[in-house]
Amino acid sequence: MKNLTTLCTIVLAIISLLTCTNGRVAAQSAQVEGHYTYEHAFNYDLMKCHLDVHETGTMVFTHDGSALDSARQVYTATMEDGCKVIFVFNYISPSRWRLEDEDFYFAGIKESFRMEVVDMKTMGCDSTRATELAQEIVKVVGGSIDYKYKFHLDLLTAKKMQWSFTYRDGHSDTWEFYRDPDVQVCE
């Protein structure tokens, strides 16, 4: 009985090694291509304002290496004097992607990128300053859209894809995408 328990433990360990990489599911178990939904939050500072961003969107990856990222982005800007502005942006970024082992390369196509304000609520802030900030947000995001990001593909299954990115300052961020099996992606 002791030998059987030892044998089962060894077999389970081998199976775990074959299906996981550093505790993560190997990328070869599913295909990237598909229609995904996601939510993501991040923050940064711009023009002496703190920006808290929440986005809800869809990501479509096709077999030819193209992708379409479209999202509703809500920016809550806290100005230097404490007043706030809420911007809602429509974000559309046709992109290119490729996967090499666990390295997921992704870059937007600058000529096709669109980001526009669809709503703006000022709460005690000057509307001229708020408009200038909105224009600067679009300029900064659009200016870096074609940067080729190298994400780490953490997880890829029939239902979920997760990638992560480590910034120059050492902090990292993770994105989780949930596959919509009811939406067919055209080739």
Helices and strands in order:
Blueprint: H1 2-19, E1 20-21, E2 24-25, E3 34-46, E4 49-61, E5 66-78, E6 84-100, E7 103-108, E8 114-123, H2 127-143, E9 149-156, E10 160-166, E11 172-179
Antiparallel strand pairs: 1-2, 3-4, 3-11, 4-5, 5-6, 6-7, 6-8, 7-9, 9-10, 10-11
Describe the structure.
It is a single chain. The chain has 187 residues and is an alpha+beta fold. It has 2 domains: 1-27, no CATH class; 31-179, Porin. Helices cover 19% and strands 53% of the residues. The protein is built from 2 helices and 11 strands. Strands 3-4-5-6-7-9-10-11 form an 8-stranded antiparallel barrel. The model is unreliable at 1-28 (pLDDT under 50).
Q: What's this model, at a glance?
A:
By secondary structure, the chain is an alpha+beta fold.
Number of strands: 11
Query: In CATH terms, what is the fold-level topology of the largest domain?
Result: Porin
Sequence of strands across the biggest β-sheet: 3-4-5-6-7-9-10-11
Largest sheet: 8 strands, antiparallel, barrel
Low-confidence stretches: 1-28
Rough outline = elongated
- In DSSP terms, counting alpha (H) and pi (I) runs of 4 or more, how many helices? 2
Q: What gyration radius follows from the Cα positions, in whole Å?
A: 21 Å
Order of helices and strands: HEEEEEEEEHEEE
Q: What proportion of the residues form beta strands (DSSP E)? A: over 45%
Q: Structural class, please?
A: alpha+beta
Number of domains: 2
The CATH top-level class label of the largest domain? Mainly Beta
CATH architecture label name of the largest domain: Beta Barrel
Helix content: 10-25%
For the termini, the CA-CA separation is 54 Å
What does the average pLDDT come to? Answer: 86
